[in-house]
Amino acid sequence: MSEYIADDTEDMDITRVFEPDDEENGRDRDRERKSRRLNFCFEDLIGRQEISWEQVYGLKEILGAGGQGTVFLAERLGAFDVSFHLALKFYRPNDYSDVEMYRSEMARLAAVAMEVSRIQQDHILDIYNVVEHEGILVLATEWVDGMNLRELVAPPVLQSLKGKVNPDRWDYINDVVMTNAGFQTRLMPSMVLGILRECLAGLSALHRRKVIHADMKPSNVMVKQTGNCKIIDLGSSFFTHTPPRRPTWTWRYAPVEVLEGAPHTPLSDMASLGYVMLELLSGKIPFVGVTDKNELIQLKKDMWERVAEILPADVARNSKLVEMISKMIAPDPADRFDSLEVIELSDNGAAALQRQLVKVDMDTVVANEMRVLLQELSLAKNGPEAA
Fold first, then answer.
1. For the whole model, what pTM was predicted?
2. Is 273's pLDDT higher than 50?
3. Which residues contact 132 (CB under 8 A, 6 or more apart)?
4. Domains in the chain: boundaries
């Protein structure tokens, strides 16, 4: 690095007679020196091959904790008294047999994370950095301000709006957005199709880069304050050629072939997403209470032929929708759609279904409906009763 040396002789003139404005002239020269110094530092910085500085994160609150680790809402402190919110996931080592296995798996996850960071797809979690601190993997990602789908369909959420919005708005929400289905809330078909299409776009982008998500479930899809969806939690993700050394996926949403010992594939992500969509449409959590693997496999083998029975009568009348969900969750991958792009674009796919809803005036702008709903839910926490 070159060194800046101030030239003090430029301020010295022994032949000069002092005048009253010399003090002001001195301040001008001081400002000029500081400006030259700052410009020198800028040119020096942009001419380097590398640069480093210390980064401080304030851990604000725990956003979630599970078998793989703990996620914090963090505040990255910056210059000029500004800060930036993000999420930090700390991967726990105690479930690995030894340090070598932990490091090997963390290196694999780090490689996947960096590949995903290059995709820059709107419906996939943005990844900022991978850090190793005292041997522990820390993943720095976007903080998604919103609710995951599991939280959204929990019965208390919808109920919290009753009495907090006016009666007309309450009826509209139940007719167009979501309504009580008994065990939990179900979303209306137009809302589910909007969510499905955004998830298809995100997962397709992963699959094009040879990355399998491998743990699609309601809690891994966030609805942002903007109303759009984000697929989160890449802790189970892997490249197609380097599967994980131990399973980290959720049994309830895993397809038949995975439960029978086969590795996850893009078509496995498809089936898991199909189970999620069926749950959102029906208001029923699939396979709740089932703990035996063989029983779970048999239920999933039978389910694709029972979709019309599982769905509410008003939804089941749409044969194209029933056919699409059935094909997504077919127990044999050969009976599913060829790819997620085909689900979006085929004659019986998501785009065609949404066009059908437009024709019968049952379509809605999903992102806007979700944005308004999340705003109402936020206000309902402490807001007054509706007039």
1. 0.87
2. yes
3. 106, 138
4. 57-141, 146-379
